[in-house]
Design goal:
The protein is mainly beta and about 850 residues long. Helices cover about 10% and strands about 30% of the residues. A 6-stranded mixed beta sheet has the order 2-1-54-53-52-51. A 4-stranded antiparallel beta sheet has the order 3-57-56-55, with no helix packed on it. Helix 1 packs across helix 3 and helix 1 crosses helix 4.
Length: about 850
Amino acid sequence: MQYSSPRLRTALAVLAVWCLLLSGCQSAKEKSAAAEGEPVLLAEAGQAAAGSPLPPERMEFLEKKRARKEAKGPKRFDQPSEAQQFYASQRAPVGETSLPVQKYIEAINASKQMPVFSSRLNQSFTADSIRALDAKRTGTLSTWTSVGPGNVGGRTRALIIQANSPNIMYAGGVAGGVWKSVDSGASWTPQGDLFANLAVCSLVMDPTNPQVIYAGTGEGYFNADAVRGAGLFKTTDGGATWTQLPSTTGSNFHYVNRLVVSPNDHNRIYAATRTGLWVSPDAGATWSRLYDASSVNGVTDLVVRTDTNPDTVVIACGIFTTATIRYSNDAGATWSSSYSEAGMDRTSLAIAPSSQNIVYALVSSNAGGNYNSGMQAVLRSVDGGASWATQVRNTSPTKLNTTQLSNTVYAFYSTCWGGSNVFWYNQGWYDNVIAVDPVDPNRVWTGGIDLYRSDDQGQNWGLASSWWANSNAPYYVHADQHAIVFHPNYNGTTNTTVFVGNDGGVFRSDTARAATNSNPCSTTGNFVWTNLNNGYGVTQFYYGAVYPGGATYFGGTQDNGTQRGSTAAGPNAWATLQGGDGGAVAVNPQNTQVLYAEYTNISITKSTNGGATFVDAYAGIADSFPFIAVFVMDPNAPDTLWTGGTKLWRTTNAAGIWTQASAVLPSGRVSALAVFKGDSNRVATGTSTGYVLTSTAALAATSATTWTGPKIVNGYISSVAYAPGLSSTLYATCSTFGQPHVLKSTDSGATWTNISGTGTGALPDVPALSVAPDPNNPNRLYVGTDIGVYVTNNGGTSWAVEHTGFANVTTANLVIEPQSKRLFAFTHGRGAWYVPLPPAKPASGTASVELLLLNQ
C-alpha cells in the first residue's frame, strides 16, 4: 500500500535546505542558530548530504525544528501515523504488524475470574465478592483517585447529541472509549470499561429510541492496519452497559468508519468499513454487504437522506488509492459511480439538512506535489449525489481556498514570517470532515488541521479557528478536526451553536455565523470557542513523573504535548508545557525548577525556570532513536541522565553535553532504562528486540564498551526496574503478545525467570508496560498493562487485579513517589491516577462485601 504521508517529500526538502546551509548560503538568522547549538544537526545534515540519509522520521523532525527556530510562532504539532505505528510495534506478535484486538476482550474476560486486591484497603477479595459488591452499590469500587487532566481531552472522532434532550451528548475517544455528558459538555463520565483499548471511531443513535446507541471501533483511515477495532457494540440503556455484536467480530468489521440508522426503518443499520458498505436489517443481529470496497481500502464516508423512501445512500470509497463516490437511490440494491478523478483520495461527504438534494464532498489528493495528502477539490451535487460539480480546486489563485487539509500556518510561512520558505504539512488522509449549516445549504464547513467555512456554496473559504493560537484564546481550537455537529435546535439566529471533535477533545462555539478570518497569520478572529474537556479524561500519556511530595505531576502525551497538573489547581487545570507529541519527563528532586521533557525521536529539552521555557538539551548525540525515546534521571545524582537509540548515551552535567556510553547494541533500540538507587554504576537497559543489558561500571562506559546480557524474550522490553535495596535483583516487562510478560533476575541480569503466574492467578496474555516494585514489601510488585494494573503479593507466584477506578485502560507508566507513599498511574487514554501504597503486610483473609461497603 502506498505510504501517503508527506515524509518522503519533507526528507527531500530538508536535504535541499541543509545543502544550502553547508554550501555557505546561510542567512544571518541561520548562522546565529547554528552558533547557538546546531552542530549536531549540521553533522546529521552532512551525513545525509554525503549519501547516508537519516531515517525519514528524523529528517522530518529536523525540518520541523528548523522551521520553528525561524518562525517563533507555530507550535509543534503531532504525528498521528508515526504514533500509531509506534504503538503497534510495542505490542504486535512476532512477525505481525497489527494487534490481535480480540485478545483484549479475551484477557478482560479472564481477568474477571482472577482474585482482586485493593491497595487502598490493603485487602484481597474474590471476583465473585466484587461482583456482589458492585451489584449492591451505585457504580464500582473505585479506590484510586483521578488527578486529571480533565481539561486536555484526546482524539475524538465521534460526537452525537440527543435530539429531544440536547443536554445529553456522547463522545467517542479513540483511547478511552465512549463518554457521556448530561449537562451539554460541562462534565463527562465514561460509559462502560470494555472500550478502553478500542478506538471508538463512529457513534449513531436510534432516532426512535435514544437509549439505543451503536459504537463502531477501529480507525480505518491509516495507511497501516496497526490498531484494529473489534466490530460494533450496542447499548440499550443509554450507555450504561454495552454488548459486542457477535455478527461483527470478524475481519470485515475491524475498522468501522461510519454508522447510519435508516430514517425509514430504525432496525436497518448501515456500516461503512474498510471492506465495504454493510447493512443489518435486524438491529445488528445479521449483516450483508451492499458494496465491496475492499480493493480500495474501504468506504471512508457515508450519508443517507432522511426525506426519501427507499433510502438514498451516497458513499465515498478509497484511501491511499484512486477514490470514487457511489450513489444509490434504492437503499443500496444498485449503485452508480457518480464521481471519480485522477489523484482523488480520501473523501468526506455532507448532506444539506434544509435542502437534501444538495450534497458536498471534500476531496483529498494523492497526486503528488505540494498538495499530496492536501486538498484536491470541494465538490457540490444538486441532485442528491448522482452527479457533481467542482466548486474550488487546489489551483485556485486564492491560496487560502486550497489549504483546508494543510497545516495552514506553515503553508503561509513566508507570508507570516518573511523569507521564501513554505512548508506543506498535509493530513487529508487523517483529518478530513465536512458539514453543512442546518438551515442554509450554501453555508458549508470543513475541518482539516484547522476549521474553515464558506458562505457561497464552497467556492471561497475563510478560517474559523487557529490551532497555533494560545490555548486560552477565544479563537483557539485544538488541531486535527474529525467531527462537526450542530446543536439540534440550531436555527441560524437565536441558536448558532456548533460542536467539533478533534485530537484535543470537544469544543463548542455559539457563534457559528460569525465572519470568517482571511488572514492565516492571525491568532484572533470573530469566532469564540469554548473547551468542553471538563472531566473528559481521555488523555494518552506515554510517560509521567511526580514532584517530591506527590502534589505536582507532569507527563508526555500523544497529540497533546507535555502536560502538568497539581493537587492545588485540581484535575481540570492542567497546563501545557510543550506542544506536539510529548514523551519522557524528569524533575530534579533537589531543585524542582529543573525539568526535562521531550517530543519525538531525539529531542530532549530542559527548563531551569520550572517549565516557563525549555531549550534543546541533547548536544553531542548522533544516533537513530524510536518515535518516543526513553530517558531517565539517575536517582542518586540528578545531573546524570541516560538515554539511547542504537547506542547508550550519558550526561553527567545536566544535559550540557552527552557522551556515547556503549558500542552499538546487539540489535534493536533502547526501549527501557533503570539506574539502581544506591549505586550510579549499576544501570540496566532493555531493547526493542528482547535483550536486557547491564553494567556495574556504567559511569566509566565509553563508545567502545560492549554491554552484556541475554535475550530474555522474543519481543519488546517495555520497562526494567531494580528491586529497592537489592542491587542484584531486576524486573522486566514485555509488551509483545504471546511472550512472558513479567520476568525477574536475581543475579544482576545474567539469568531470568518468568514470574507471570499460573492458573487463575496468571497474568493474561496482554501487553505489560511498566513494573513498580513496592519499597515497603519486597514480595509486592505492581504491573501496568494494556487493560489496567495487576499486583502480586508473593513475588509473582500469583497475581490479582488491582481494583482501580480507570477500567481496562492502557497503563503506560507506574511511578512510586516515596515521600507521599503513593503509586501513580499514567494511562494512555484515561489520564493520571494515584493510590496510597498499603502497609508492608496485607490484611489477612478476604474482605467481606459488608466491610467494603462500610469503607466506601
